[in-house]
Amino acid sequence: MGMAKRALPRLVASLRPLSSTAGTLPRHVKIVEVGPRDGLQNEKNLVPTQVKIDFINMLSETGLSVIEATSFVSPKWVPQMADHAEVMQGIRKVSGINYPVLTPNLKGFQAAVAAGAKEVSIFGAASELFTKKNINCSIDESLQRFSDVLCAAKEDSIPVRGYVSCVLGCPYEGKIAPTKVAEVSKKMYAMGCYEISLGDTIGVGTPGNMKEMLSAVMKEVPIGALAVHCHDTYGQALANTLVALQMGVSVVDSSVAGLGGCPYAQGASGNVATEDMVYMLHGLGIHTGVDLSKLLEAGSFICKALNRKTNSKVAQASCKL
Question: What's the whole-model pTM score?
Answer without folding.
Answer: 0.92
